C-alpha cells in the first residue's frame, strides 16, 4: 500500500509536462532560429546559395546583354572604288521532313523535287541532274544541303531563288567579305578568315594575309555592348559601350592601271607559263605603289588559284636578280670615284682566282668601255668595275641601297635576303646579280634612289586611314626618304647609261621603246639556283627589266620579273615589253593629261537614265559616249561618277538588254581593257599601241565570257 502511494506521488503532473515540453520547444526554436540566422548571414555576406551567385542570377533575370558587332572597315583603291568590303553570304538548305509547317499551316518542306532542282540548277553552280539526285537521296531525312554549290551565295542570287516561290528552300546568313574585283592585286590586298570569338558562339572576320592582316587592328574596330536593365514599375534603363566600326583603308592602287596590268600579265602568263612572275609600277617621286600583281595569283572572291600560291612574291620570295643589279654596280662605281669612262676592258671571260666570270656572249666584243659593257649587259665589265672598287666599297653600297635590310613594308613574312661574299669570285658575282638573294620590294626601294636624284624612298601601298563615323583622316602616308646612297649627279649619269640600253643599236633593251616618251631601262637574265648548283637549259633563267620614265626626270618606275618561262623560241624581252609598254604608256598619258591645260570635266552618274538622256548628258558635259547595246536605259559606265577626266575622253555606256560590239579601231590598250572588264569579255591582245583589228566585228551581238582578240599597232 505504501509502495503504491509512493509510486503515485512520483508521477509528474500535466502542468509539469507542459512546462518541460515548452522548454524543449523554446530551446528548439532558438536553435532553428540560430541556424537560420547563420544561414541568412552567410547568404547576405557572400551573396551565394547552393553554389549560385545570387547577384549574377538576379542580374540575369532583370538584365539583357547584347553585343553589337563592329563592321569591318572597307579597303579602297586610290580612286575610291571598294576592293574589299563587308557583306553577307548565304548557305541554302532544303527541309525534307513533311511534318514541318509554320504557324499558319504552310508547308516548310520540299513539295516538288523537280521544281526545286530546276530552280537550283538555274541559279547555282549545280546541274539539274545532280540537284535532283541530292533531293531524292534526302527523302526521309529532316534536311539536306548541296555542298559547295549551296554555300557563299550572294544576296542577289538568294533573292532570285526566293522569287521563284518554291517551298522547302531556306537560307542561313553568314558574315562575309566581298572582293568585287576578283583577281585584283590579290596577294597585296589579302584575305580574311572567320574565327571564333572567345567565350562566345559568335565568329569574327580576321585578316589572314596582305593588307587585311597588316591593318587588321584598324579594320576590325571594337564591338559595342547594349545592356537593358528592367526596374519594376519604373520601366527599364539602357546602358553599355558604343560600337566603333573599323576604319577604312585607302590604298595607293590606281584602279585603271591595276586592271590593265592584270589583263596584260594574264595574257603573257598564259602564253609562256612561267613558274612565277611579278610586275609593279611605282611613283618614283613618292614611293607609292600604283599597281602590282604576280603569277600565280588568285581570285579573292572565289579563292580560285589560292592553293597554287599563298606567298606574296613581292616580299616573301628571295631570288638572284641578275643583270638589273648592274644599275647599283654602276651607281656605286661612279659615286665612289672608281668609274673611268675612258678605260676599256677585255670581254668574253674573266678569271678571278682561277674561277671564270663568263659573258652571255662568251666570245665577247673585244675591248670595250664600261658604258658599252653596261648597255651590252657584260658580266665581265661589271666584274672589272667591282674589282676596281674593291669588295669593301662595293659591300658598303650594297648596304646603302638597302639590299641587306628589310623594307619594313608591314606585310607578313617579309624576307631580308642573303649574300655570298667571302671569296673574290663571290664578290665579283654579286656585281652582276648572282650570289645575292633579294626581294622585289628591296629592288624597288633601291631603284628610287636612281629615279629620285639620289634620295631613296620608302615604298608604301596605303595612302590614308579614315574613321567611317567622323570621316576624319586618322593616318596619312607621306613620302619618306630612307637614305641617300648616291648624289644627284651620279643618279643622272646612271639614268643616261640606262638610256643607252634602250637607244643604242647594241643595247639589250630596244624592245622597251615607247613612242613619244624617253625611256631608261636595264634588262636582266639570271641563272636559277636549285639550292646547290645552277640549273641549265633555255628555260632555266629568271628574266627581269626595270624601266623608268620619263628618262630625264622619272615619274614612274616599273619592275618586272619572269622566272623560268617556256619560251619556245620567243623572246623574254618581247613578252615583258608587252606588259611594260602598255602599262607605262597608260601611266604617262594619264600624267600628261593631268598636267596639260586641256579642259577637264567631272564624270556624272549616268546609270539608271534613259539611253537617249544619258548620251545627251555625256556629250553636253564634254565626254565622248560609246553606247554598247540597244536597250532603253544605262546600267553600267566605264568611268566612275565623280572621276575627273579630260574633255573629249571616251566613256563606254552599257544599256540593258543585248550588248553589241562597237568599232574599237583607234582605241588604246587601256580603253579596250576597261571595255572588256565592263562587259565581261575575255580579252586577248597582241602588240602595243592602238587597235588596228578586232576579232568580233562592230555591230555583232556580244555576251559576257565571250572571247575578244584585238591587234594593236
From TrEMBL:
Record's superkingdom?
Bacteria
GO terms for cellular component: plasma membrane
- One Pfam family name from the record? PBP_dimer
The processes (GO biological process) annotated in the record are: cell division; cell wall organization; peptidoglycan biosynthetic process; regulation of cell shape; response to antibiotic
The record, for PROSITE patterns, names: PASTA
Q: What does this protein do?
A: A transpeptidase that forms peptide cross-links between adjacent glycan strands in cell wall peptidoglycan (PG). Part of the divisome machinery that synthesizes the septal cross wall. Beta-lactams inactivate the PBPs by acylating an essential serine residue in the active site of these proteins.
Q: This chain belongs to which protein, by name?
A: Penicillin-binding protein
Amino acid at each position: 500500500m505504501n509502495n503504491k502511494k509512493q509510486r503515485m506521488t512520483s508521477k509528474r503532473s500535466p502542468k509539469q509536462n507542459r512546462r518541460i515540453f515548452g522548454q524543449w520547444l523554446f530551446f528548439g526554436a532558438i536553435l532553428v532560429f540560430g541556424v537560420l540566422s547563420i544561414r541568412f548571414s552567410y547568404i547576405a555576406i557572400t551573396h551565394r546559395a547552393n553554389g549560385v551567385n545570387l547577384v549574377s542570377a538576379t542580374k540575369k533575370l532583370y538584365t539583357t546583354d547584347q553585343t553589337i558587332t563592329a563592321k569591318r572597315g572597307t579597303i579602297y583603291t586610290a580612286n575610291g572604288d571598294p576592293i574589299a568590303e563587308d557583306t553577307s553570304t548565304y548557305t541554302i538548305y532544303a527541309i525534307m521532313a513533311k511534318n514541318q509547317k509554320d504557324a499558319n499551316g504552310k508547308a516548310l518542306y520540299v513539295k516538288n523535287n523537280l521544281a526545286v532542282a530546276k530552280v537550283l540548277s538555274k541559279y547555282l553552280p549545280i546541274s539539274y541532274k545532280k540537284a535532283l539526285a541530292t533531293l531524292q537521296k534526302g527523302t526521309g531525312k529532316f534536311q539536306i544541303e548541296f555542298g559547295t554549290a549551296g554555300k557563299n551565295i550572294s544576296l542577289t542570287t538568294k533573292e532570285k531563288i526566293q522569287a521563284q516561290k518554291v517551298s522547302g528552300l531556306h537560307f542561313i546568313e553568314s558574315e562575309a567579305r566581298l572582293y568585287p574585283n576578283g583577281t585584283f592585286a590579290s596577294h597585296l590586298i589579302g584575305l580574311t578568315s572567320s574565327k571564333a570569338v572567345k567565350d562566345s558562339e559568335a565568329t569574327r572576320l580576321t585578316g589572314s594575309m596582305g593588307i587585311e592582316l597588316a591593318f587588321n587592328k584598324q579594320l576590325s574596330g571594337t564591338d559595342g555592348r547594349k545592356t537593358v536593365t528592367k526596374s519594376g514599375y519604373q520601366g527599364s534603363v539602357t546602358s553599355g559601350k558604343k560600337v566603333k566600326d573599323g576604319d577604312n583603308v585607302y590604298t595607293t592602287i590606281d584602279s585603271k592601271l591595276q586592271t590593265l596590268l592584270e589583263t596584260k600579265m594574264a595574257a603573257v602568263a598564259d602564253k609562256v607559263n612561267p613558274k612565277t612572275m611579278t610586275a609593279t609600277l611605282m611613283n618614283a617621286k613618292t614611293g607609292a605603289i600604283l599597281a602590282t600583281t604576280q603569277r600565280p595569283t588568285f581570285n579573292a572572291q572565289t579563292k580560285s588559284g589560292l592553293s597554287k600560291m599563298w606567298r606574296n612574291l613581292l616580299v616573301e620570295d628571295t631570288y638572284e636578280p641578275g643583270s638589273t643589279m648592274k644599275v647599283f654596280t654602276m651607281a656605286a662605281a661612279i659615286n665612289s670615284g672608281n668609274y673611268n669612262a675612258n678605260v676599256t676592258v677585255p670581254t668574253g671571260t674573266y678569271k678571278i682566282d682561277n674561277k671564270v666570270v663568263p659573258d652571255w656572249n662568251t666570245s665577247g666584243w673585244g675591248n670595250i668601255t664600261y658604258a658599252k659593257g653596261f648597255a651590252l649587259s657584260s658580266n665581265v665589265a661589271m666584274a672589272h668595275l667591282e674589282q676596281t672598287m674593291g669588295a669593301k666599297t662595293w659591300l658598303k653600297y650594297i648596304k646603302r641601297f638597302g639590299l641587306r635590310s628589310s623594307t619594313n613594308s608591314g606585310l607578313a613574312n617579309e624576307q631580308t635576303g642573303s649574300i655570298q661574299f667571302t671569296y673574290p669570285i663571290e664578290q665579283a658575282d654579286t656585281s652582276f646579280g648572282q650570289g645575292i638573294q633579294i626581294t622585289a620590294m628591296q629592288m624597288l626601294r633601291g631603284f628610287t634612289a636612281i629615279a629620285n636624284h639620289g634620295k631613296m624612298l620608302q615604298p608604301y601601298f596605303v595612302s590614308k586611314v579614315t574613321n567611317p563615323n567622323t570621316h576624319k583622316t586618322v593616318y596619312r602616308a607621306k613620302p619618306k626618304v630612307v637614305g641617300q646612297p648616291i648624289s644627284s649627279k651620279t643618279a643622272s649619269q646612271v639614268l643616261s647609261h640606262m638610256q643607252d640600253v634602250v637607244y643604242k643599236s647594241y643595247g639589250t633593251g630596244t624592245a622597251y621603246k615607247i613612242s613619244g616618251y624617253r625611256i631608261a631601262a636595264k634588262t636582266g637574265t639570271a641563272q636559277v639556283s636549285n639550292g646547290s648548283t645552277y640549273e641549265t637549259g633555255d628555260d632555266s633563267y629568271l628574266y627581269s627589266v626595270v624601266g623608268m620614265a620619263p628618262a630625264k626626270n622619272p615619274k614612274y618606275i616599273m619592275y618586272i620579273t619572269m622566272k623560268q618561262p617556256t619560251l619556245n623560241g620567243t623572246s623574254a624581252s618581247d613578252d615583258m615589253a608587252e606588259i611594260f609598254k602598255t602599262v607605262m604608256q597608260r601611266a604617262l598619258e594619264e600624267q600628261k593629261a593631268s598636267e596639260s591645260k586641256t579642259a577637264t570635266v567631272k564624270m556624272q552618274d549616268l546609270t539608271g537614265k534613259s539611253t537617249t538622256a544619258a548620251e545627251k548628258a555625256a556629250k553636253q558635259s564634254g565626254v565622248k559616249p560609246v553606247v554598247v547595246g540597244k536597250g532603253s536605259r544605262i546600267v553600267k559606265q566605264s568611268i566612275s561618277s565623280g572621276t575627273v577626266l579630260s574633255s573629249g575622253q571616251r566613256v563606254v555606256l552599257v544599256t540593258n538588254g543585248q550588248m553589241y560590239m562597237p568599232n574599237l579601231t583607234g582605241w588604246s590598250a587601256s580603253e579596250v581593257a576597261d571595255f572588256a572588264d565592263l562587259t565581261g569579255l575575255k580579252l586577248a591582245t597582241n602588240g602595243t599601241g592602238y587597235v588596228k583589228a578586232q576579232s568580233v566585228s562592230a555591230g555583232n551581238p556580244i555576251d559576257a565570257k565571250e572571247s575578244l582578240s584585238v591587234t594593236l599597232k
